[in-house]
């Protein structure tokens, strides 16, 4: 204590004491001294030191000046300094992390909190909620040190760290001491409410931010909600209900870091480890789910192991951290200042400890439930409330308790998820196998019930796989067999062949151990299907043929019928139509006999494919629609989409493009929803073919390329080769002959190896058509001849007629007009019988060209005009340009030059739209016509055509029509003569 230069009594201090009725001994006891010293202060013998001044101010709720605790010269200095007040920053605020530039991955949430705190006009209530270790305290600390926040809350920031058992009275008295206030009545100083009232009055209209960290009890948060109108309150809590109750609109959920941010944080902490073992550290990030506390513990540990620069030590450390128990028990010493409020001073921080604090607060039943939930895979996997209750065998209230404790996250209505680190902790609570047994039992039953509900199977995909793995490791053979066979169709549909194959091999072994022939047949049926989808036809055929006698021996009619259907489908694809029909007829008869409606519908679809190829589209349509009715009645989405796609093919082949597109779109929506990769790829090719025929090559390419990506991913060689074939046909259409030839030659050996005669013939047909365009007529004849032989062998009437039509065009070009006439007439007859108006119109156009060359202009005009009329009705802009060109050449031949200009220019517009390779030839004809007519007449006629109705076959606007003509004219008038 400092003696004054002149003894002057202090009446202010004495008056303050007497007005409250206190003795000098009362004051001494409150501030921690004796009555003699208090008397010396009042007589002016000594002045209270800086240690006692704040205590006296708090005791009397008065300033040092008001109590006369400073000499006159100090009062004058304090009066000057009071004109520039300093904000009150609570020394309990944790210091910012040393040497760091900021929190990684938290810029967005910090901006959100800042905006929320800075824009509130009334009492601001905000809450940060998230998992243990997600970084709530770190965010609150960053806010407390933020210059903008400090400037806004210019009177100070108060901090209180609570934990499960906070000393509310101690925290309030500390805040009161900082603010220089205390309850007037000494007897009230043991009551938190008295301190709260005193602090609230002291804060008044000050701009103060009160941060309440680590709240476990809503009442504790309310006890410290004591700011004034210009104050704001921010709490952090791991308990969602507290956050919502404290601030229903101001709650911000703090999520884990994303993979990129997690990698940045780990790189900041342990750069050498991340650089030397990038894949291992990436796996480690996934194992802890982006939790900042976990990443910090891992990073600090790896940094200590990497300091020697020895790769061996880093590798060993990463190997050790693969184990969940090692990650849980990594510890980090805590500083004495800013330590975790839920832990005693000196307690090292670890994931085990941080999560354990929450676990200690829940009931024994809730802990049992948490342990049982460890059998589920962690986040991002989710599971249903029903599954959680069955697996844990505990009441639903325990799930509510875990959710309220912030240990179990909600992921939608009646669905939950466990963070990776909490799941690791939960494993330590699981001591028996009964939960895994219940998991297997529940999901096998669930899968059997929902085997046609692809959306539900997709939602539970990971859980079902986990359950089947549990059934396998626990030797629950019956469950393994039943669950696998219910789930295998979904996996195969999704293209997850490797996963399905592993499960099916296990189920086949289990079925043999259990001596259940029907289940052995089911396993082999699915294994054969996987082999077939991988284009391993020999393996598929052998697998099914091995299973068929077993099914027949044990009177497994359903199993044998399914295998017969697949053998029929395989025979069809390999060009054996008669054998295919035998297999399919036997299968259908058996399925009708036993009342297997779904099986019969699938067989009807396959049989429809066969007879459609054989030129019976009406019969195929009847089979398809019958199957569609059954699929819809049974709720089989996949079967429904399958038939819609097949009906779309029929519609396209019967020149109904709009109906085909509608059917394709419906099927496409379903296939995308259920994730049927194989059929999705096939449908995309059909869409590509439809849009290509409609003269939209770029859209067709998009469909083909998406199909290509799917088929590459599923390793379906046949589908992949078929996609490449169609890309080759598209390239050929656009005159990219070398690229097309490479694509055709790439797939020919694949189709030969797979014995896929139909697709081989289609490739040879496409190659032959291109060679006709290139003038390589001998090669074209060779390839078309082989294609025609194959199509006739497999009784594919439509493709036989199309190939015959191309042969007719080839014969015409080789001067064999009689042969050309016979071939074209044969093709036209068959196509008309099939109802394929589009391809029949092309055949009629070829016959018109032949008539023109034979010197029959009237017949040629009739045939070409009829063909163009049909193409216009169908808006066939792919083939209409050729019909228009032929009419133009006929008009030129008849010396009708104005008509020739009209037809040739219209033809060239279509070829430009189609990016057709014949365009330059027509441009040359138009240049010759320009010279023949003269510029003035030529341009007059072009101007008239520009302002007429666009060619109906193209379906384009007048603007596109006139703009395309203008583009053509620029090239003709200004281009080379």
**Helix-and-strand structural type:** mainly alpha
CATH architecture of the domain at 88-253: 3-Layer(aba) Sandwich
CATH topology name of the domain at 88-253, in short, is Rossmann fold
CATH C-level category of the domain at 88-253? Alpha Beta
Number of strands: 11
- Helix tally equals 51
Query: Rough shape?
Result: elongated
Cross-sheet strand order for the largest sheet: 1-3-4-5-2-6
Task: Quote the distance from N terminus to C terminus.
Answer: 112 Å
Pfam families: HTH_3, NB-ARC, TPR_10, TPR_12
Keywords: TPR repeat
TPR repeats: 681-714
Region (Disordered): 1-22
Plain-language structure description:
The protein is elongated. A six-stranded parallel beta sheet has the order 1-3-4-5-2-6, sandwiched between helices. The protein is built from 51 helices and eleven strands. Among the domains are: 11-82, Orthogonal Bundle (434 Repressor (Amino-terminal Domain)); 88-253, Rossmann fold, CATH 3.40.50.300; 362-431, Arc Repressor Mutant, subunit A, CATH 1.10.10; 880-977, no CATH class. By secondary structure, it is mainly alpha-helical. The termini are far apart. Helix 11 links the parallel strand 4 and strand 5 (232-237).
């Amino acid at each position: 204590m400092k003696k004054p230069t002149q003894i002057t009594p202090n009446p202010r201090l004495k008056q303050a004491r007497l007005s409250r009725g206190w003795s000098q001994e009362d004051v001494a006891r409150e501030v921690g001294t004796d009555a003699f010293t208090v008397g010396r202060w009042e007589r002016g013998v000594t002045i209270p030191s800086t240690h006692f001044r704040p205590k006296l101010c708090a005791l009397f709720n008065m300033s040092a000046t008001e109590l006369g605790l400073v000499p006159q010269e100090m009062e004058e200095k304090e009066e000057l300094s009071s004109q520039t007040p300093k904000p009150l920053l609570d020394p309990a605020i944790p210091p910012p992390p040393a040497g760091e530039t900021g929190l990684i991955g938290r810029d967005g949430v910090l901006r959100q909190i800042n905006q929320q705190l800075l824009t509130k006009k009334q009492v601001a209530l905000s809450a940060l909620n998230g998992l243990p270790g997600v970084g709530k305290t770190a965010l609150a600390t960053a806010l407390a040190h933020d210059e903008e926040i400090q400037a806004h809350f210019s009177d100070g920031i108060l901090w209180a760290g609570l934990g499960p058992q906070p000393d509310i009275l101690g925290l309030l008295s500390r805040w009161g001491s900082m603010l220089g206030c205390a309850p007037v009545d000494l007897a009230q100083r043991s009551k938190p409410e008295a301190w709260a009232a005193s602090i609230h009055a002291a804060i008044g209209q000050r701009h103060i931010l009160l941060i309440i960290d680590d709240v476990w009890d809503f009442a504790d948060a309310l006890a410290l909600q004591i700011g004034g109108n210009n104050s704001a309150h921010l709490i952090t809590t791991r308990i969602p209900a507290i956050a919502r109750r404290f601030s229903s609109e101001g709650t911000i959920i703090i999520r884990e870091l994303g993979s990129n941010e997690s990698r940045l944080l780990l790189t900041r902490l342990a750069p050498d480890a991340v650089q030397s073992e990038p894949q291992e550290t990436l796996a480690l990030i996934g194992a802890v789910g982006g939790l900042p506390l976990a990443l910090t513990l891992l990073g600090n540990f790896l940094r200590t192991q990497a300091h020697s620069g020895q790769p061996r030590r880093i590798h060993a450390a990463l190997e050790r951290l693969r184990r969940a128990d090692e990650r849980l028990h990594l510890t980090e010493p805590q500083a004495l200042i800013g330590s975790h409020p839920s832990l005693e001073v000196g307690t090292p921080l670890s994931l085990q400890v941080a999560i354990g604090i929450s676990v200690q607060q829940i009931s024994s039943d809730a802990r049992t439930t948490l342990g049982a939930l460890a059998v589920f895979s962690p986040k991002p996997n989710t599971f249903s409330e029903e599954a959680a209750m069955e697996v844990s065998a505990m009441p639903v209230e325990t799930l509510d308790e875990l959710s309220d404790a912030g240990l179990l996250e909600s992921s939608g209505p009646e669905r939950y998820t466990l963070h990776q680190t909490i799941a690791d902790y939960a494993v330590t609570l699981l001591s028996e196998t009964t939960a895994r047994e219940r998991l297997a039992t529940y999901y096998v039953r669930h899968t059997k019930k929902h085997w046609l509900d692809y959306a539900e199977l997709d939602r539970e995909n990971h859980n079902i796989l986990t359950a089947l793995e549990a059934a396998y490791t626990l030797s629950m053979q019956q469950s393994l067999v039943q669950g696998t066979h219910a789930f295998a169709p979904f996996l195969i549909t999704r293209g997850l062949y490797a996963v399905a194959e592993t499960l099916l091999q296990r189920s086949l072994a289990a079925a043999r151990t259990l001596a259940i022939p029907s289940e052995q047949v089911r396993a082999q049926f699915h294994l054969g299907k996987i082999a077939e989808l991988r284009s391993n036809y020999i393996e598929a055929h052998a697998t099914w043929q091995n299973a068929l006698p077993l099914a027949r021996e044990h009177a497994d009619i359903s199993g044998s019928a399914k295998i017969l259907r697949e053998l029929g489908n395989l025979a069809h694809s390999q060009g054996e139509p008669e054998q295919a029909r035998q297999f399919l007829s036997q299968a259908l008869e058996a399925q009708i006999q036993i009342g297997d409606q779904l099986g019969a519908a699938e067989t009807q679809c396959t049989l429809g494919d066969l007879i459609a190829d054989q030129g019976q589209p009406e019969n195929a349509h009847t089979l398809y629609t019958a199957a569609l009715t059954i699929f819809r009645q049974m709720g089989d989405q996949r079967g429904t989409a399958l038939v819609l796609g097949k009906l779309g093919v029929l519609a396209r082949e019967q020149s109904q493009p709009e109906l085909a597109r509608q059917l394709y779109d419906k099927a496409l929506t379903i296939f995308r929803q259920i994730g049927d990769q194989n059929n999705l790829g096939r449908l995309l090719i059909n869409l590509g073919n439809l849009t290509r025929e409609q003269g939209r090559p770029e859209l067709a390419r998009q469909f083909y390329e998406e199909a290509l990506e799917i088929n590459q991913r599923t390793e379906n060689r046949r589908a992949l080769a078929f996609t490449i074939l169609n890309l080759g046909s598209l390239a050929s259409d656009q005159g990219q002959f070398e690229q097309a030839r490479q694509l055709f030659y790439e797939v020919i050996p694949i189709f030969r190896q797979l014995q896929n005669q139909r697709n081989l013939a289609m490739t040879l047909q496409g190659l032959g058509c291109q060679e006709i365009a290139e003038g390589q007529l001998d090669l074209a004849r060779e390839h078309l001849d082989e294609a025609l032989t194959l199509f006739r062998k497999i009784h594919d009437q439509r493709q036989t007629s199309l190939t015959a039509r191309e042969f007719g065009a080839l014969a015409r070009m080789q001067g064999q007009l009689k042969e050309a006439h016979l071939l074209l007439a044969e093709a036209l007859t068959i196509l008309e019988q099939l109802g394929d108006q589009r391809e029949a119109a092309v055949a009629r156009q070829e016959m018109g060209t032949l008539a023109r060359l034979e010197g029959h202009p009237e017949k040629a005009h009739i045939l070409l005009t009829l063909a163009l009329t049909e193409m216009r009705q169908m808006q066939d802009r792919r083939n209409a340009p050729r019909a228009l060109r032929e009419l133009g050449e006929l008009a030129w031949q008849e010396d009708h030059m104005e008509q020739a200009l009209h037809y040739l220019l219209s033809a060239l517009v279509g070829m430009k739209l189609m990016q057709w390779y014949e365009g330059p030839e027509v441009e040359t004809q138009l240049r010759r016509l320009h010279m023949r007519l003269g510029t003035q007449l030529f341009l007059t006629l072009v101007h008239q055509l520009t302002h007429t109705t666009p060619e109906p076959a193209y379906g384009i606007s007048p603007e596109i029509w006139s703009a395309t003509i203008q583009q053509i004219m620029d090239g003709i008038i200004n281009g080379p003569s």
